[in-house]
Amino acid sequence: MKLKLSLMTTAVLFFVGGQLVEAQKVSTDTLPKEQKIEEVIVVAYGSQKKETLVGSNTEVKAKQFADRPISNIGQAIDGASPGVKVSTSTGQPGSAPSIQIRGIGSYNISTSPLYVVDGVIYTGSLSALNPNDIASFNILKDAASTSLYGSAAANGVILITTKSGRKGSDVLNFNMSTGYVGRSIPEYDRVNARQYYPLIWEAIRNGRLTSVPGTTVTAANAYATANLISGVLKTNVFNVPDNQLVIDGILNPDAQLRYTDLDWQKPLVKTGFRQNYELNFSGGTNKTTYFSSVSYTNETGYIIKSDFERFTARLKVDSQIKNWLKVGTSITGVSSYGNNSVDGADSNSSYINPYRWTRFIGPIYSPYAHDPTTFATLYDSSGNVIYDAGSGRGADAAAGRNVIQETLLNKDISKNFYIISRAYAEIKVDQYLTLSTNVGYDIRNNRRSTYGNRIIGDAAPAGSATKTAITEQTLTFNQLLNYKRKFGEHNFEFLLGHENYKFQYEYLYGYKQGQVVDNNDDLINFVTIRSLPSQTDNYRKESVFSRINYDFNSKYLLSGSIRWDASSRFKEDVRWHSFWSAGAGWRIKGEDFLKDSKTINELKIRGSYGEVGNDNTNSYYMYQSTYDLGYNNAQEPGILFGYLADPSITWESNKQTDVGIDFGFLNNRITGSVEYYNRITDDLIFQVPLPVSSGVPNNYVYKNVGTMYNRGFEFSLSADVLKTQNITWNINANASTLKNKVTKLSDGINEIINGTKKISVGHSVYDYWLRQWYGVDAADGSPLFLVADDYAGTTASDIRTVNGTLVTTNFNKAKYDYSGTAIPDLFGSFGTSFSYKNWSLSAMFTYQLGGMTYDSNYASLMSSYSQGGALSTDILNRWTTPGQITDVPALNSATYNSSNAGSSRWLVKSDFLSFRQATIGYSFNTSDISQLGLTSLRILVSGENLWSKTARKGLEPVQTFSGTTSNRYTPARIITIGFNLSF
């Protein structure tokens, strides 16, 4: 039977015992009933008919991300499913985003989902997986879907299924793309050099009037003029004398710049370049199929000395050796190289953080040295520019450092090597019973080398080098017994399984100082050993699990599962724990009154309840008190008490309830789902404080003491607006809500304050706890805070009443209170795909409504007394005149500590709309390219992170789930052009 291409939909996935087979699903209106192919979907340890699922399982197929210029499969998860929140990856090439599924699963331990690759748990970096080797991934969100993974599934599960060969003719595919990499988030607007000097002068003048009572304005003006350069900023880049630069608050109109090379970003920021090449070859016979691929990715970031290079090679073979025996194996080799920029999140305030430096350096300092007389840029005898080490900079401008020079001289190199291997055997005992076994072995060797130069910076004048070697090995071995049988309209499936998991971590670190010769950063070139630790950690899990599925004519659905886990992280008497789920569904479409409906094509109600766990703690030995080695005194050995353990500590447990409705109307041109979930985390692991007299390190012990919930609604909708022979147009959207609340803390713990947050019963873990900003006193420009209760009845010069409200100008007397939350009211994505004949277009937007971001980056640019640091253009709205209404306090060197203090002033709305990605492509007609020996040829242009709208220019509201900001490598905009061809 011949079918038109328009009747064919995308590949459907079949997965049994580690095997993936791809098949075309034919439109249900074009074939007799007996020829229809049932759509199945990948689930834990197998597959299941989609119509009989009772769990929450979102499938994302390769075609949805195949044309995108992504180096990490985690980037394809953003916007792919309701209930999934993504903190975008940094601009560092190859970096991965952070992912949360259905809220905040924990407070002190991991909230990341579990990844499973081809049926085996995967703990390596997602950057080691070539996105073009992936056939699909499934996001499992509720207990009915995840409970078979037991103690590792509390934060959801992402099943990644790799590509397999197909029976039939051999196919050779070649894909290539290349393009541009640039910055996607604009920088905050800041004042220029001509604006800057009068602003600092004003802060000095106002500070003099405040700190020295009786000083006249004339005297204060003269004081500010005299001290502006010599006392504060140290550098005058204009061609007028220091004492004539700013007079009475006005920049000398005759002032001209002596030199103009004041841009620190230009030498550090460039246009990056991305290229990707892939060749894959697949095919097979009736007995054996194969898929092989090689790929090369090279991406240079828009910050100098940041790049990522990856080479992968993969082979997967499946063979039906006997009619009762099927085996398969796959192996992937990965080699990657990374030139790492400074991690802005972990090194937020570091002097070598290029994002911090270029954002906060005052607009009056040059990176380069200049002749003191001619002001010409200086060069050494070899013609190289001489950098300015900063002796003539203010206190906020990092005297003695130069981020450009240090970035060029320092090194941070990563070299990673991975082997990812899978094998399975499937024995068909009889027509109902199948025995299968899967084994997965992964080994990861991570090597990192750093070099600190001896000319300028932290390592000067000795120079330093470090070498880090990390080897991780995982071995997973499971055995599955699967029984499927049909009795009339009754369908049963029973799974019984056993699994061993072994993880070993080996670490070696060497740090030496005292460089001997130039251009050699091996440790042998350094004299003094400063640190040389090593360690080996082991982690084991043993599991037994079972699942039973039942359906009556795909109409009444039941599912139940249980898993017993033992984790080596916990003591023997609490090591074993059971996790389980039960689910039910009613496929109303299967009822006689809807069976023949042309309007309603799918209608199913489903629900589940279950318990899963989280043992991903920050220690492999949570129940054991530990001691730290290496505290030696010369040749005398030393040991130090390092960690006090609670022997009874065990898993955090998630109790999950899920109710959903799936629907499809008008020949499935409109499809979607609505879900509600309630996720309760019991036995939260918290740091319980202990008295200092106890002699316990850090004065706390970890215990299972808390309870919190996450609950919300999820909506997804897809509609084919147009569907003709030449035109198809689809629109889709998803939306999610989230409510998080702590409901219990242990006795003796009423609150836990951590940075900008306070954890207490009745509040979210992401609720802000901040000084309460009131505003600016229109009378004198003072910063105002609500008064803390302890000072409400006192009288002091720093407490006053404004507009009937008791306030203070002293941030130390300010009231602390809850001030909103980082959790949005609504988040999700929407997109469209359109095709006309050979042309296709797809686009996706992500959005967030509600929630607040604590913008510490902006706060640093709004100092009321900057001593060489940059200033936001919003500082131009500062208070200057009695009666003036503004939200920016007066510039004042005497009161700036209060103006700059952390408070609710720095909260800003987290609403955003992002044009996340778009692709436009053209596919040539087969008849036009067949003479070239090609079966297909497609040209495409694709882009990532194309545009965003936020509450403030420069703001990046999705960089953390907690709503805080850092001076990090902001995400890259990537635009590529490429082609795909097949032989």
UniProtKB/TrEMBL annotation:
Subcellular location, record wording: Cell outer membrane
Topology relative to the membrane: Multi-pass membrane protein
Record Pfam families: Plug (PF07715)
Keywords: Cell outer membrane, Membrane, Transmembrane, Transmembrane beta strand, Transport
Coiled coil segments of this chain: none
Annotated ranges, domain TonB-dependent receptor plug: 50-157
Domain of life: Bacteria
Keyword Ligase: no
The keyword Transmembrane is assigned to this record: yes
Primary localisation category: membrane
UniProt xrefs under NCBIfam families: OMP_RagA_SusC, SusC_RagA_signa
Family statement drawn from the similarity comment of this UniProt entry: Belongs to the TonB-dependent receptor family.
Descriptive protein name: SusC/RagA family TonB-linked outer membrane protein
Organism: Chryseobacterium paridis
Organism classification: Bacteria, Pseudomonadati, Bacteroidota, Flavobacteriia, Flavobacteriales
